[in-house]
Fold this sequence. Notes:
There is one protein chain. By secondary structure, this protein is of the alpha+beta class. It has a single domain (2-214), classed as BirA Bifunctional Protein, domain 2 (2-Layer Sandwich), CATH 3.30.930.10. Helix content is 32%, strand content 27%. The protein has a six-stranded mixed sheet, sandwiched between helices. Strands 4-3-5 form a three-stranded mixed sheet. A hairpin with a 2-residue loop joins strand 8 and strand 9. The chain is globular and about 45 Å long. It starts with a strand and ends with a helix. 39% of the residues are buried. Residues 209-215 have low confidence and may be disordered.
Amino acid sequence: xxxxxxxxxxxxxxxxxxxxxxxxxxxxxxxxxxxxxxxxxxxxxxxxxxxxxxxxxxxxxxxxxxxxxxxxxxxxxxxxxxxxxxxxxxxxxxxxxxxxxxxxxxxxxxxxxxxxxxxxxxxxxxxxxxxxxxxxxxxxxxxxxxxxxxxxxxxxxxxxxxxxxxxxxxxxxxxxxxxxxxxxxxxxxxxxxxxxxxxxxxxxxxxxxxxxxxx
Length: 215
């Protein structure tokens, strides 16, 4: 069983704290596997064991422009979240260590590729980098963390969001790959409510009722 928690637009810090609370509850089997879907106010986040070298402006300048900045425990480098981008945080219990983690990320990529296929967007995995890509650029960033065999953090799908803030950073440390969005590729806004339903349905179909059995 996988439940959906749709937070609408919520600050990064509030959602980050909520994730940590839900991870503890999931680890203790107090709640089922839960997918959080959310939009964030403008924020840059940096993964563990990374520094701010891929930030092209000083933190002070970006804060003056209205961006929050956080260093968090997920994998990956620096990325941007903002309104119009669909962010998903799977609070899922997995069964094993690194083998399960790798398969978890691989499965998450495949699920989002299938979502994009429903919109006639040809997306694919990159042979070297985590995430989902198109011929026009990267469209999904993925960075996850695990605690007590429970996943948190997750994915960010560029939907209708402004891509300009990505120019303030080197997204995911990839200077040679631009960022793109569903809106840019389709030439129109995407219905967010319909998209969220598709994402939840595909994740539920892919991961099934028991992650502990599937991974």
